[in-house]
Amino acid sequence: MTIKPLSDRVLIKMQEAEETTKSGIVLASAAQEKPQIAVVLAVGPGGMVDGKQVDMIVKAGDKVITSKYSGTEVKVDGEEYTIVRQSDILAIVE
After folding, report:
1. Which of 39, 40, 50, 89 is least surrounded by Cβ atoms within 10 Å, i.e. has the fewest?
2. 67 and 88 Cβ atoms separated by less than 8 Å
């Protein structure tokens, strides 16, 4: 199944949370922070949103940082994805 975002929406896949600290301590799943870095999988066409022209800046393959609890989580074919507005993306990681 293919997911194609509409309007100013972006389909992302969150990267896995760190399971160990830099010093080597293994974290329980409850202690792991929710990841904020994701990979862009698909981008909507942009266009008029709320009476304003929105040009899409991100593209498929970009690594991005998102707002901590933004977007809608969806599960398709056993994989978890998040659909966010482009405005919920804070930065592109280079």
Report:
1. 50
2. yes
3-state secondary structure of 24: coil
90: Cα within 13 Å, side-chain hemisphere: 10
Residue 50 reports pLDDT greater than 60: yes
Model confidence band, residue 31 (pLDDT cutoffs 50, 70, 90): very low
DSSP code of residue 88: G
Question: Which of 84, 91, 90 is CA-nearest to residue 70?
Answer: 84
CA–CA distance, 83 with 91 (Å, rounded to integer): 16
Decide: residue 38, CB within 10 A, 0-12 exposed, 13-18 middle, 19+ buried.
Answer: buried
- Using DSSP's 3-state secondary structure scheme, residue 41 falls into strand
